[in-house]
Design brief:
The chain has 423 residues and is mostly beta strands. The chain folds into four domains: 116 residues, Sandwich (Immunoglobulin-like), CATH 2.60.40.1080; 89 residues, Immunoglobulin-like (Sandwich); 80 residues, Immunoglobulins (Immunoglobulin-like), CATH 2.60.40; 105 residues, Immunoglobulin-like (Sandwich). 0% of the residues lie in helices and 51% in strands. It contains no helices and 40 strands. It is elongated and about 100 Å long. It starts with 6 loop residues before the first strand and ends with a strand.
C-alpha cells in the first residue's frame, strides 16, 4: 500500500564486534553475548512539493540527501511516479500533470527513498466573461460582443490560455462566434426571447457563458432596401407581402415594411440561371432599415441581408461601410483596403483592412478623399500574398453622408466592386 504521508528510510549497519564471547574455562562459566550496536547512516527528504497539481502547469520538485549527523550529502537522486499516466516526472524532478487522479512522487538515492503523500491532479479553473465585464446578459439582433477566457491553477495563480482556445455556439443560426471570441447576433424572433450559450474549450477543460436575445416588436414601420449586385442580369425579389421587384444589376429600391422577422426570396431572371437564388430570414427592428443584397456570377448565387442602422454621423465625417463576400475558396484570399487617396496598399498602415469571406463593417472617418482597393493574391503575381491590386474606387465623400461598397468574389476572374450611395 502506498504511504499516505511523507516518509524517509534510513540505512542501518553493525559497527563493532557483532558478538563478544568470554569463556571462563577455568571457572566453567557460561558464554556472554553482547547486543549489536546499530547506527543510522542517512535519509532522503523531498523538500519542495506542489499540491494539488494542475494539468497544463508543470511543477518542480526538489529533494535532498541528509547524513545521520544532519549535514547535506552530495548523492545522485532517481525520481519516479507511481502512475505515469496521471503525472510523469523527469530525471531532475520536474513533474508534468497529465490527467485527473492521485499520484505519489518518489525520490531514491541508493537504498534510501522518500515519497510524497497522495497528490491530487486536477483541471484548471476556466472562466468566460465579456471584455467589458458587463453584468447583464441580454443582447439584441445585430449586437457584437468580445468574449475572453481566463484560467487559474490550483493555487489561484493565472495560467496562459492564448492560442489554445476553441469556441462553440449552441445555435450558430442565432449567434456565431469567431476563433477570436467575437460574438455576432444574427437572428432574433418576433415577440419571443431566444437564448444562446457559448462554450470555450481550453487546457483540457471547458467553461461557458449564456445570453438571451431580446425579441423584436413586430408590426411597427420600417424600411427595406433591395439591391442587385448580380452579374447575371436582372433579379426578382419576392417581398413579404407577396409583391415582386425586378431590379437590373446595380439597381436598388427602398420599400416600406413592418418590423419583425423578414423572409425574403429571390430569383434570377436570366434564362436557366438560378430560378431560385435563396430564401433568407432576417430581422427588421422598429424604425430600422435593412438592405437585402442579391449576389452572384456564372457559377453561384446567394443573398445577404445587412442591418443599415448606425448612429448619427458627426459633422465633418462620412460613414463608409464595406460589405464583402467571397465564396470561391479560402485559398484565394481577397482583401479590402481603405487607404488615403492615391496611396499604395502596402508599406503604409491601412485606414481599414478586411479579409473576406463574409465581412461587413462600418468605418467612420474624416470626409477627405480616400480609395477603396480590392486586392487578390493571385491577380498579378500568381503567388500567395495580398499585394496585388485588383480594383480601386476613388471617393471624395460629403460630410454627414453614408456610402456602401459591395465587394463580391466568386472566382479569381469574377471579382466585382460596386459603390452604392445610401438613400
Amino acid at each position: 500500500m502506498l504511504p499516505s504521508r511523507n516518509r524517509t528510510s534510513a540505512f542501518r549497519g553493525i559497527t563493532r564486534g557483532a558478538i563478544v564471547l568470554a569463556l571462563s574455562m577455568a571457572c566453567g562459566g557460561a558464554a556472554e553475548v553482547a547486543a549489536p550496536v546499530v547506527e543510522e547512516r542517512g535519509r532522503v527528504s523531498i523538500d519542495s512539493v506542489v499540491a494539488p497539481l494542475t494539468i497544463g502547469r508543470p511543477a518542480q520538485f526538489r529533494a535532498s540527501v541528509i547524513s545521520a549527523a544532519g549535514t547535506p550529502l552530495t548523492a545522485p537522486l532517481a525520481w519516479s511516479s507511481t502512475d505515469s499516466s496521471v503525472a510523469r516526472v523527469s530525471s531532475t524532478g520536474l513533474v508534468t500533470p497529465l490527467r485527473e487522479g492521485g499520484v505519489h512522487i518518489l525520490a531514491r538515492s541508493g537504498a534510501m527513498e522518500a515519497s510524497t503523500a497522495t497528490i491530487v491532479v486536477q483541471l484548471p479553473a476556466l472562466n468566460v466573461a465579456t471584455s467589458d465585464a458587463r453584468t447583464f446578459r441580454q443582447l439584441a439582433y445585430g449586437d457584437s460582443v468580445q468574449l475572453q477566457v481566463t484560467a487559474l491553477d490550483a493555487q489561484g495563480a493565472p495560467m496562459p490560455v492564448d492560442g489554445s482556445v476553441t469556441w462553440e455556439s449552441s445555435d450558430p443560426t442565432i449567434a456565431s462566434i469567431s476563433p477570436q471570441g467575437v460574438v455576432r447576433i444574427s437572428r432574433s424572433a418576433a415577440e419571443k426571447e431566444l437564448s444562446v450559450f457559448f462554450t470555450a474549450h481550453a487546457l483540457g477543460t471547458r467553461a461557458g457563458i449564456g445570453f438571451s436575445i431580446a425579441p423584436v416588436q413586430s408590426g411597427l414601420p420600417a424600411t427595406v432596401r433591395y439591391v442587385n449586385v448580380n452579374s447575371q442580369g436582372p433579379v426578382t425579389f419576392v417581398t413579404p407581402d407577396g409583391a415582386t421587384l425586378s431590379l437590373s444589376q446595380g439597381e436598388s429600391r427602398v420599400v416600406s415594411a413592418r418590423s419583425g422577422v423578414l423572409d425574403v426570396r429571390g430569383a434570377n431572371l436570366a434564362p436557366g440561371v438560378y430560378p431560385t437564388l435563396q430564401s433568407i430570414a432576417t430581422v427588421v427592428q422598429p424604425g430600422g432599415h435593412v438592405t437585402v443584397y442579391a449576389m452572384g456570377d456564372a457559377s453561384q448565387g446567394f443573398m445577404m441581408a445587412v442591418d443599415d442602422g448606425h448612429p448619427p454621423i458627426p459633422p465633418g465625417t462620412a460613414l463608409v461601410r464595406i460589405v464583402a463576400a467571397n465564396y470561391y475558396s479560402p485559398t484565394y484570399t481577397d482583401n479590402v483596403h481603405l487607404v488615403p487617396a492615391g496611396a499604395p496598399i502596402s508599406g503604409i498602415p491601412d485606414l481599414c483592412y478586411f479579409d473576406m469571406p463574409s465581412v461587413s463593417a462600418y468605418v467612420a472617418r474624416a470626409a477627405s478623399p480616400f480609395d477603396v482597393v480590392l486586392a487578390n493574391q493571385f491577380a498579378v503575381s500568381g503567388t500567395p500574398g495580398p499585394t496585388d491590386e485588383w480594383m480601386r474606387f476613388h471617393a471624395t465623400p460629403e460630410s454627414g453622408k453614408a456610402y456602401t461598397y459591395v465587394i463580391l468574389g466568386a472566382s479569381i476572374t469574377g471579382m466585382s466592386l460596386m459603390r452604392i450611395d445610401e438613400p
